[in-house]
Amino acid sequence: MSQTDTKSDTASGYTVDPEEIEKFSRIAAEWWDTTGNFKPLHQINPVRLSYVRDQICSHFDIDPKNRAALEGLSALDIGCGGGLLSEPMARMGAAVTAVDASEANIKIASVHGTEGGLDINYRHGTAEDLVDEGLAFDVVLNMEVMEHVTDVPAFLKASANLVKPGGLMIMATLNRTAKAFALAVIGAEYVLGWVPKGTHDARRFVRPGEIRDALTPCGMKVMPPVGVSYNPLMEGWKLSGDTAVNYMIVAKKV
Question: What is the SS3 assignment for 171?
Fold first, then answer.
């Protein structure tokens, strides 16, 4: 693990919002509590992980049935939180680097990963820090991060710079629509109490076209988005054609 900032829990970086980082740092100890504030992420994680695995295997022509399907690939998890995606990526064989601007998140993730016998390079820092180091990866995960940064195009440009030629970036975020405001903010935060109030600012939600406009000049080919919808009867998430709220999207470095 890299050295961390001893003066602050927040890493420096020109797209980092200290208030957003502090918000998640306060509840960092709950990352692996499946009934706590991160319960929705634990519920959606199987769908996210299946999509990520399938996209990677398809892109690199790998058999998805192979338990070590990602062996030989380097992967970066930006805004890794407690490591909910970093750990399964490592279990599938990827050489995982995981970065988060919250030192509290990194401490929790590092301890949990070590207890699980996983070798993950957890870093307290930002995407911009890794760009400055000249690092690049076969796969970059950018999941539920961009709606919390101060400058989405700049953040996406930095993220794109971390993708090797021929590699890909997989993203997940919330669409800036009236439906997303109604369900992801009013419904999830104030009515159902799925996540703490103030977790999301609907003005920061990102439309798929904005991702495409930011990444295309960076040599990235952006694929059509795929929706992720909640089924209240099954109490579970599934891929769908509805991208008005949650969606995932893939960009390939050409």
Answer: strand
Is 99 domain-assigned?
yes
Q: Is the pTM of this model over 0.70?
A: yes
Distance CA 163, CA 159 (A): 7
Tokens of 120: 């993950």
Q: What is the mean pLDDT of residues 37-65?
A: 94
Pairing of strands 95-100, 220-222: unpaired
Q: pLDDT digit string (tens) for 228-246?
A: 998 766 668 999 999 999 9
DSSP bridge partners of 249:
171
Q: Is residue 1 part of a domain?
A: no
Question: Could you tell me the CATH number of the domain that includes residue 59?
Answer: 3.40.50.150
Please answer whether residues 41 and 84 qualify as being in contact, where contact means their C-beta atoms are separated by less than 8 angstroms: yes
The strand ranges marked E within 18-73 are none
Contact between 207 and 176 under an 8 Å Cβ cutoff? The reply is yes
Residues 44/50/55/61 CA torsion (nearest 10 deg)? 170
Alpha carbon 78 to chain centroid, angstroms: 6
Quickly state the pLDDT bin for 188 (edges 50, 70, 90): confident
Cα separation, 141 vs 98, in Å, equals 9
Domain membership of residue 118 as a residue range: 18-253
Q: How many domains does the chain have?
A: 1
- Count, in order, helices (H) and strands (E) of the chain: 8, 9
Residue 75: inside a domain, yes or no?
yes
